[in-house]
């Protein structure tokens, strides 16, 4: 079984498109290299930010294989699974391995509001079908299914279910997980606006969104907090928060892609039915990005910290 050290900053990267709606692998490589240069711990493909629901199977294959090639074993490449049926999820897990991915991030069944028993069975059957390490994405706010601690009690009997992307919006849940499972379940914050608080309460890492545009600042906050340099982390986080709030918005993809344009590691192109922001909302988002760029902090040497 492959192994993943579930810690640090793991960007859920955007998928880059050309103006004629093809994969823009050239700009995608620019962004991936910026993430690696900043010191991220993994690359996560095919999440909401990656516009996965609009990608064809061939595009997912091309994107994954290309990322694996660019990353070249420097960090794990993790593919998200968000399927409607157990059969399709098992196939997606097999494909991920065939494409060279090192691990999986898994949502509960999509569209159908599965019971606790059905959700556990879904995760178990997919996990038993693959050797890839798995991080469960627990986001009951957006996806209406909560993976409870009792459910994790069953799931952790499987060696390759190892981590949770914690997006319940309840900071106390990190302490509950630690009290119940110790370090047997790795915890990564999945909500940008709760990331520093989560790390201070014991989260192992951060599955991040605005990292797509600001990789160095994101990793700096995580590393400083883990190294005990809390005040320095807080100061950067306070600067970052207006930008991070662009992630907790229905148009998070458009918002973050606009920010990537500002930092010159992305383009604004989205895939329909998404459209670029217009009108007053576009002005509002651009103002936040422009203010963030104008006051971008000087970062300490965060890469050499003992954490």
TrEMBL record:
SUPFAM superfamilies: Aldolase (SSF51569)
Binding site for pyruvate: 207
Active-site residue numbers: 137 (proton donor/acceptor), 165 (schiff-base intermediate with substrate)
Keywords per UniProt: Lyase
InterPro entries reported for this sequence: Aldolase_TIM (IPR013785), DapA-like (IPR002220)
Pfam families, A to Z: DHDPS
Keyword Oxidoreductase applies: no
Entry GO MF terms: 4-hydroxy-tetrahydrodipicolinate synthase activity
CDD domains named among the record's database cross-references: DHDPS-like (cd00408)
Family (UniProt): Belongs to the DapA family.
Protein name: Dihydrodipicolinate synthetase
Biological classification of the source: Bacteria, Pseudomonadati, Bacteroidota, Flavobacteriia, Flavobacteriales
């Amino acid at each position: 079984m492959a192994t993943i050290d579930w810690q640090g900053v793991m960007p859920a990267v955007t998928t880059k498109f050309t103006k004629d709606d093809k994969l823009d692998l050239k700009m995608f490589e620019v962004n991936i290299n910026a993430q690696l240069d900043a010191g991220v711990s993994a690359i996560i493909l095919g999440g909401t930010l990656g516009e996965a629901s609009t990608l064809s199977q061939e595009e997912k294959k091309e994107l994954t294989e290309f990322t694996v090639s660019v990353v070249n074993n420097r960090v794990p490449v993790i593919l998200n699974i968000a399927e409607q049926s157990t059969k399709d999820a098992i196939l997606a897990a097999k494909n991920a391995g065939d494409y060279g991915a090192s691990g999986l991030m898994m949502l509960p069944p999509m569209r159908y509001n599965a019971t606790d028993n059905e959700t556990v069975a879904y995760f178990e059957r997919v996990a038993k079908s693959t050797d890839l390490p798995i991080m469960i994405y627990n986001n009951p706010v957006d996806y209406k299914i909560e993976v409870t601690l009792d459910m994790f009690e069953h799931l952790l009997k499987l060696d390759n279910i190892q981590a949770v992307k914690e997006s319940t919006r309840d900071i106390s849940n990190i302490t509950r997980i630690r009290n119940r499972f110790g370090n047997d379940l790795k915890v990564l914050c999945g909500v940008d606006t709760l990331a520093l608080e989560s790390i201070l309460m014991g989260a192992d890492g951060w599955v991040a969104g605005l990292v797509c545009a600001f990789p160095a600042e994101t990793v700096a906050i995580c590393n400083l907090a883990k190294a005990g340099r809390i005040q320095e982390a807080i100061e950067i986080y306070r600067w970052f928060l207006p930008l991070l709030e662009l992630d907790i918005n229905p148009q998070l993809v458009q918002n973050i892609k606009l920010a990537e344009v500002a930092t010159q590691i992305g383009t604004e192109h989205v895939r329909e039915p998404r459209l670029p922001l217009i009108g007053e909302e576009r002005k509002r988002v651009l103002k936040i990005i422009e203010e963030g760029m104008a006051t971008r902090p000087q970062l300490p040497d965060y890469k050499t910290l003992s954490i």
